[in-house]
Amino acid sequence: MGAPSFRFRTTFALVLAATLAGPLTAAPALARGPEGIADVSEQVIDAVVNISTKQKVDLNSGAMPQLPPGSPFEEFFEEFFKNRRGPGGQGPNGNTPQSRRVNSLGSGFIIDAEGYVVTNNHVIADADEVSVILNDGSTLKAELVGTDKKTDLALLKVTPTKPLKAVKFGDSDKLRLGEWVIAIGNPFSLGGTVTAGIVSARNRDIQSGPYDNYIQTDASINRGNSGGPLFNLDGDVIGVNTAIISPSGGSIGIGFAVPSKTAVAVIDQLRNFKEVRRGWLGVRIQQVTDEIADSLNIKPARGALIAGVDDKGPAKPAGIEPGDVVVKFDGKDVKEMRDLPRIVADTAVGKDVEVTIIRKGKEETKIVKLGRLEDDKPTPASLTPKKDQPDEEKSSVRKALGLDLANLNEANRKKFKIDDKVKGVVITGVDPNSAAAEKRLQPGMVIAEVQQQPVTSAADLQKRIDQLKKEGKKTVVLLVQSPSGDPSFVAIGLQ
Fold first, then answer.
1. What is the DSSP letter of 99?
2. pTM here?
3. CATH fold of 48-87+96-158, please?
4. Which of 206, 278, 269 is nearest to 243 (CA)?
5. Domain 6-11+167-273 class, CATH top level
6. Which CATH number is associated with domain 391-493?
7. Tens-digit pLDDT profile for residues 127-150
8. Where in the chain is the domain with CATH 2.30.42.10?
9. Mind listing the pLDDT tens digit for each residue in 370-385?
10. For 125, phi and psi rounded to 5 degrees?
């Protein structure tokens, strides 16, 4: 059986089946949860809405359109193209379809009586029309104020014909494990439905974006719950239901919500600017592993390791360099790598920020004037070295750490297509049984630094390794660059 995948929940179809295996028995009072669930539900239900979307699609191509993950139209297209297309790409009656309008339902909630509604970005993505259906069944046309793909949030605006019930955000940082929460949404297109559960975990990273810090709950979150609110027992929104783990398509008690602390900052910017303006430091970072921490004399292992610095970014003029470890940013502790992007993104653009780094075992403070993250900035290329080991490179100048090493000359640059800006010692071969092979070092990569000291020749690198062994070091940290100059730190054992 394959590993369960994360699926975003929005749909417009319904198939229900229920069987009663035996006589119903009353559950113990504790199993039913706290009495306050009913009071909270009555208090907030009118603020929870259905999000109805429509999209006109061209069906002439005969191929299923490419949709973003979690698109509300995903299941429609899967069903249509798998079950309804006949031979030659024709429709069920032998006629070629021209176009069709498809509908979808998700969830959302009103945060302001003026008509501001929060939902997920993937609920309304690619829609031509968006409507908000209130709990009493009335429908209002919605305008899109703004979206944020990185946190999967969207803000809509409707013009109410009567006073609307609104809910307010609470403080998700105050949530405790085991605390009762209530999810309200539109699962299976049934209309407003209430489920309850507990907070299973906080700060979950499900690899869906750079700012993942989800609340995990076992409150049932099913198809159509996307964009709906997660309430605490005070009736405050402490999360926006977004995703579930589901091998079968239904809830198995593992659901995720964007915490209110993240949502509030994003929604406020969408409301004020119709876009999200995030801080930008201009660095590439890596996790500080135990091996790297030991080699850099950082105890305990913590922070974000700077692997590279953008020449045009704010970090460079502030004096931040590759090999520095950021342990505090704007007064906030950076406990692990993924903390830094969230903290930087939440910091005001243009602010002068104190950044505490560890450099060669000592703490230093740098002042950075934060820039603005532009979504259209090109993503740095990943390490893509050559996989084939050239036969003629067997006559390497030095061997160390299971690597064949050579000076970086014009011949090597041409052979491995190494950029002129890359400096150091080129790897020409890798022992497949070595620790270097386990770290995925490959021919064509260039070692620029050994233990934060630049190396310019294979002999220089060999001497540095020998010296570290004499000093009793167990691990060495290498700054490795791809042929195009993409940097990465790699820790290799010396024993």
1. E
2. 0.65
3. Thrombin, subunit H (2.40.10)
4. 206
5. mainly beta
6. 2.30.42.10
7. 889 999 998 889 999 999 999 999
8. 279-372, 391-493
9. 999 886 443 333 333 3
10. -60, 135
